[in-house]
Amino acid sequence: MNFLESIKERARADKKTIVLPESMDKRTFEAAEKILKEGIANLIIIGTPEEIEENSKGFDISGATIVDPFNDPNKQKYIDKFVELRAKKGVTAEMAKEQMEKDYMYYACLMCKCGDADGAVSGACHSTGNTIRPALQLLKTKPGISSVSGFFVMDVPDCEFGDNGLFVFADCAVNTDLDSAKLAEIAGLSAESFKTFVGGEPKVAMLSYSSKGSAKHDDVTKVAEAVKIAHEKFPDLQLDGELQLDAALVPEVGELKAPGSPVAGHANTLVFPSLEAGNIGYKLVQRLAKAEAYGPVLQGLSMPVNDLSRGCFADDIVGVVAMTAVQAQLSK
Question: What is the pTM for the complete model shown?
Fold first, then answer.
């Protein structure tokens, strides 16, 4: 069984309710039909009757719950919750109502916050910022977590490295400003994400263009400091750095460049030193090695909310919904 099928099977075993707020996009309905047919999750689709009718033509979504954000009997409950959460920012009931009607992602997050849904997936026709912002404002991060980051599960065919070709790559999608503390935090979250989705023991490599001081630069120092912080925060985690990519993955190179390291040559969780490196890295592997890239999946939020690429296909939405459902099972 391949990675995605195993995730779908786990999602089916304990079905969760996932909200899809992008009723203005036909891909939502194509994906919804497949999700419902495969029994991956219960679905709520937010949209007006006109939006639903126009964009769902040709797709069977009869098993989904449709919520009209203008005529929902639960709407006042969500408005009240919005005001409660954002009153210190000056949000009034009228402002909350207007925001919810203008941006369905706010509505979706409020449904999650009020316990009417277990997670949300958006981003097919909205930016990452438009997906994350409502989640940060209404759902917040987990206790002790300072920021949200994004990872991909990379499934590399015919690969001798990682966990039979499976890896977690982070952060490839969210943080543009990474200091040592954030890198350490991402390392801990990514290790948990590896356990959640791949299983087994995460072996985290903090990547750089230097291995164990082979180069001197502030960028190298940043990663080396992150390693120290991570060791203090997560003493039981198999983590090492700074490591060059070949030292992280190839046993012979790891032994040469970082002898005695518990991670070098065996890493399955790669933490990149910058968003540029992470984004370029996952796309190189995806395109040149013909790997499947599942994500970006967000980590660090109090409830699972996940982003989509605006170039995604319906099958991509299906996969992210399945992963969101698995996150929701564990967040309970």
Answer: 0.90
The answer to whether the CB of 16 falls within 8 A of the CB of 27 is no
Which residues, in sequence order, are CB contacts of 305 under 8 Å at separation 6+?
Answer: 109, 112, 119, 120, 121, 122, 131, 132, 135, 139, 298, 324
Take residue 149 and report the two structure tokens written for it. 């980051």
What number of other Cβ atoms are within 10 A of residue 213's Cβ?
10
CB neighbour burial string for 111-127, b if at least 16 within 10 angstroms, e if fewer: bbbeebbbbbbbbbebe
Backbone torsion region of residue 243, taken as left when φ is above 0, otherwise alpha when ψ lies between -120 and 50, otherwise beta: beta
State the Cα–Cα distance between residues 199 and 187, nearest whole angstrom. 16
Cα distance between residue 169 and residue 161, in whole Å: 14
Question: Cα–Cα distances in Å, from 257 out to 48, 211, 231, 260, 265?
Answer: 59, 6, 20, 10, 10
Q: Is 291 helix (H, G, I), strand (E, B) or coil?
A: coil
Question: What tokens does 304 get?
Answer: 């699972």
Residue 42 burial by CB count (10 A; 0-12/13-18/19+): exposed, middle or buried? middle
Domains of the chain from N-terminus onward: 3-140+301-331 (3.40.50.10950), 149-288 (3.40.50.10750)
**Within a 10 A sphere around the Cβ of 93, how many other Cβ atoms?**
12
Q: What is the pLDDT of residues 268-322, one digit of tens each?
A: 999 999 999 999 999 999 999 999 988 889 999 999 999 887 888 899 899 999 9
- Are 280 and 239 spatial neighbours (Cβ–Cβ below 8 Å)? no
Question: Using N-to-C axis directions, what is the helix angle for 314-331 and 180-197, rounded to 10°?
Answer: 100
Q: Largest Cα–Cα distance in the chain?
A: 66
